[in-house]
Amino acid sequence: MNYHQGAGVEVRIAHMFNTYGPWMCLDDGRVGGNFVSLCVIKLTHKQPMTIYGDV
């Protein structure tokens, strides 16, 4: 936005949702972290994974 305001250049901002990366907190509510947390919990307790949907 600073470049847009300073230089008058038209800009577009993209916000990526549900991304996953090395510094992401697993309990912040995003899909990737929830999935990883669930997999770790299920695997460490030797419970079957739940699969939703039929595709």
Describe the structure.
The chain is mainly α. It has a domain at 18-55. 36% of the residues lie in helices and 0% in strands. It is built from two helices and no strands. The longest helix has 14 residues, at 31-44. The radius of gyration is 19 Å and the shape is elongated. The mean pLDDT is 78.
Which secondary structure elements does this structure contain, and how are they paired or packed?
Blueprint: H1 2-7, H2 31-44
Poorly predicted ranges: none
- Give the N-to-C terminal Cα separation: 41 Å
Overall structural class, as computed from helix and strand content, comes to mainly alpha
> Nearest-angstrom radius of gyration?
19 Å
**How large a portion of the residues is in β-strands, by DSSP E?**
under 5%
Q: Output mean pLDDT.
A: 78
| Backbone shape | elongated
Number of strands: 0
Order of helices and strands: HH
The helix tally amounts to 2
Please outline the major beta sheet: none
Helix content: 25-40%
Keywords:
0% strand, 55 residues, elongated, single chain, UXS-like, mainly alpha
In short:
The chain has helices at residues 2-7, 31-44. The protein is mostly helical.
